[in-house]
Amino acid sequence: MATAAQWFEGARPRTFPNAIAPVIAGTGAAGWLDEIIWWKAALALVVSVALIIGVNFANDYSDGIRGTDDDRVGPMRLVGSKAASPKSVKTAAIAAFALAGVAGLALALASAWWLVLIGLACIAAAWYYTGGRNPYGYSGFGEVAVFVFFGLVAVLGTQFVQAESVDWVGLFCAIAVGCYSSGVLVANNLRDIPTDTVSGKNTLAVRLGDKRTRVFHTVLVVIPSVISLVLIAATPWALLGLVAAPLAFKANAPVRAGAGGPALIPALALTGLAMLLWSIGTAAGLLID
Q1: Other C-beta atoms lying within 10 Å of the C-beta of residue 4
Q2: Structure pTM?
Q3: Do the record's keywords include Transit peptide (predicted)?
Q4: What residues contact 42, with CB distance under 8 A and at least 6 apart?
């Protein structure tokens, strides 16, 4: 039986910034429209965090029963390590998705009914990333999904439920967060190229190859700083987002240096922290203005 610490590690806390950052950025964008509603922001945070925990447990379950995690380098895999049964991990994933669904339904009832459809699409995307007969994460579409759901949908959704509209500021915030969020996955998949190749998991990193994946990660962590410059058109205070640039540079350092295996783990954590710092700085700038 897995311990509480193993369950927490299995939830992959290093990915939590992927859930928190878009809500912060979306709330900042809502504040730019003078429409912050804190209880809705809190519910959006519950939805986002519950979804990422759900997708992490769902990935653990699906990869574990396929044998993909048998020789994995990285965080705790509950099923792959046999610390927990597949059934218990699947149940944990479903429970997390249910919590996201309840919080999302409350937001939909208070905002717009069609948000229910987006919520169902989010849960389906989370499950079929590595689940089902033809998981799209095994075909190189994981980064696209992360960009869409933890970038565009999460940021613009957070802005919409509070301001009941979205604008170009929210869109550019969503693009920046989506790039960072995809960068976390790119760093993860770069690390796993050897084992994914053997197991037949054709991630985008496997398809691009080692060298081009490293270039891709670099591009993804640079784009948010460029967007900070674009957001000057809204307010010069948006330059506060550049506070994340040194951390993004540090996150990319092991990628540039050609590191592999466990040496790439800091790239995952630091890319996520850079995303969180960019969102905090940008949201603060928008709110100050």
Answers
A1: 7
A2: 0.93
A3: no
A4: none
